[in-house]
Amino acid sequence: MAPSSYQQPSRGDKKPGKTVSQSVDTNMPSETSTVAKILERKGKVVISVRPGDTVATAVGILREKHIGALLVVDEAGALIGILSERDIVRKLAETPGQTLPQLVEGLMTRDVVTCDPADTLDSVLKGMNDGRFRHMPVIEAGKLAGMISIGDVVNQRLLELEYESLQMKQMIVG
């Protein structure tokens, strides 16, 4: 049974022109994925420690927040380093039983590679892979705007691939 709003064509009706509900232009994303896309979904929360905090404090925050790295900031909130699980594990191997009371400034990585919200995910992923690190602070207009991980980049790309797959299926079905 046809819906009550449906009216069959009559003899005098003009034949409708060709309509297309799907096209390559409407189905393919028109923009390149950027760090900003991740920050939109993830948020711009920055979890940090100070250089004078102990490694024990940092480890507690890492465990509590279920994260793999902390940004190290000065009193003004400016980025001065990053402390990752790898940094801590290396120090644990060098100074067993003496690592937790040490200060963050002694373990942190000082030469931090950062990205901008406008950076493409491909360029960020390449930088992470080449530098062999998994976390990258985001700097916007000279200030910390968040931090992304390699997992964030991979998850964003998976979402995009899922979207592209759905769009292709819609194009095929019509």
How does this model look, in words?
The protein is an alpha+beta fold. The protein has one domain (32-173): Roll (CBS-domain). It is built from 6 helices and 5 strands, in the order H-H-E-H-E-E-H-H-E-E-H. The strands form 2 sheets. The chain has a 3-stranded mixed beta sheet. Strands 4-5 form a two-stranded antiparallel sheet. Helix 3 (55-65) links the parallel strand 1 and strand 2. The longest helix is centred in the C-terminal third of the chain and has 24 residues, at 150-173. The relative contact order is 0.18. The model has no long low-confidence stretch (mean pLDDT 87). Residues 39-99, 108-165 form the CBS domain. This is CBS domain-containing protein.
The radius of gyration over CA amounts to 25 Å
Percent of sequence in beta strands: 5-15%
**Helix proportion:** 25-40%
Terminal CA distance reads 23 Å
Can you name the CATH architecture? Roll
User: Residue-averaged pLDDT, rounded?
Assistant: 87
Low-confidence stretches: none
Look at the structure and give the CATH class. Answer: Alpha Beta
Large-scale geometry = elongated
For this structure, the CATH topology is CBS-domain
The CATH superfamily appears as CBS-domain
Query: Spatial order of the strands in the main sheet?
Result: 1-2-3
